[in-house]
Write a structure and sequence with these properties.
This protein is of the alpha/beta class. It folds into 3 domains: about 220 residues, FAD/NAD(P)-binding domain (3-Layer(bba) Sandwich); about 130 residues, 3-Layer(bba) Sandwich (FAD/NAD(P)-binding domain); about 55 residues, no CATH class. It contains 15 helices and 15 strands. α5 packs across α10 and α6 packs across α7. The chain is globular, with a radius of gyration of 23 Å. Flavin-adenine dinucleotide (FAD) binds next to α1, α12 and α14.
Amino acid sequence: MSGADAPAQPSRVPDLHVPVAIIGGGFSGAAVAWHLLRLRPALERIVIIEPRAELGRGLAYSAADPSHRINVPATRMSLIPDQPTHFNDWLEATGALDADPAARRSEGRNFPARAVFGAYVAEQLAALGPRLVHVRASAQTVEASGDGYRIHTSDGASVEAEIVVLAVAHAPPSPPSALARALASHPSFVPDPWQAGALDAVRPDDRVLIVGTGLTMADIVASLERLGHRGAIVALSRRGLRSRGHPAQVHEPFGDFATDPARSAGALVRRIRAAVAQAEQAGQSWHCVLDQVRLQGSVIWHALPPPERARLLRHLRPFWDVHRFRIAPQVEEVLDRRITEGTLDLRAASLREVTVGDDAIHVTLRARRTGEVTQAAFDAVITATGPAHGRVFADNPVLASLERAGLARPDTLRLGIEVAPDGRTIGAAGVPVPGLFVAGPLARGTVGELMGLPDVTNYAIRIAGEVAAQLGADEVLGGAARPYASA
Ligand SMILES: Cc1cc2nc3c(=O)[nH]c(=O)nc-3n(C[C@H](O)[C@H](O)[C@H](O)COP(=O)(O)OP(=O)(O)OC[C@H]3O[C@@H](n4cnc5c(N)ncnc54)[C@H](O)[C@@H]3O)c2cc1C
């Protein structure tokens, strides 16, 4: 893949002119590129601007730690949904599981390391050859230019494109302010657990506080376990809810939430509870009901008036997150064992005060249910609050520049970027912006559930279809192509 392996050489990178540029080469950007090039076989070249060395990995699938596993079976993680076993077949054909027998579970379900999924996507992208140009840099600004856009990159080059797809997604976590203030320069404070080597400072017997009890917490405990940590871990969040595992037996999705969908958060919850009761009577678990809610998530979301969407997020999101996003069985076993052994304690509590003493980090906690205030000492504190999507416009220079230019704005729920039904950004004037699309989880304020890989893939295909439809015949045939870098 052009440019993927070469270090950036700022002064020598020529400017590029392409029909389509994708900013962000995580899974979403990669999936848009792959499907767009499949939909338009005559399209000569498109660009992805992405600072990481390989396309398709992004935050989730760059994870180097082998204990960070995909959280749904491999048969549900295909880049090509009309070939659902594409990834699983790749695993078997390449022998990628040979070095990791623990990845294989009952009923033929495989849960390999997330990095292995990243390798699979990167390989599919590499196979596109020179039709896909990887500009290994960060986009800094995007401005309207002629009939399209000019993107300025961190290596000093610029890319001109008729159509731009924003696929920048996950922002780094934003630690609670009490922690950030008190521990800013503390050597055993980990504000971003996704940084390479983030947990190196944690010693085997350290008392560890993890702030957050969801999927990131589960990953951190699995990593600490692998690194030989045996000390006590306290993980806290407002409700102390932990991500659930997968059912012992797999059933088809259960219930119907799309026919005459609920118009309020309360009605939706009542309907889900009734469906769970029916499923249990039929000998099935809640999992298959939640699976149906996810599959019908877009219809459900669109039927809810905006205040009800906000109510849903305010009151039910923590419950949704822990039931919807499940953990791999291997990780679940680690959590279960540590809870049984007494070395992992999940608490529903809030942080009241954090101070640094000579010997430890002292934390005052307030229990959610009883209001009881307790104090505890820790050697290390790790943030596990997940990506700070509400901060993307502040933290990502590209989105900041687009907001300044009136070409994009945050959605009202602060989940990401406001988009039109066809995936284009909504500008300051409140109307869709021509030729500027959003792929990936940042569109979920409009789209509804858009986080797990199957949903992200289907949405990427939709965006690829919209982009393909907008491309003129000239571009598709390569007639408008001007010089490209072959970097
Ligand atoms: C830790 C984690 C684990 C997950 N595990 C699973 C799982 O096992 N199964 C599942 O179904 N789903 C999982 N998901 C959910 C889902 O697969 C991801 O949300 C999905 O991969 C989103 O990919 P993305 O490309 O939209 O975002 P990202 O992965 O965030 O990729 C965005 C890319 O944009 C780049 N970028 C950002 N700003 C710029 C800029 N200014 N210029 C150029 N590039 C830029 C970044 O470098 C990054 O590579 C997980 C999510 C996370 C966060």
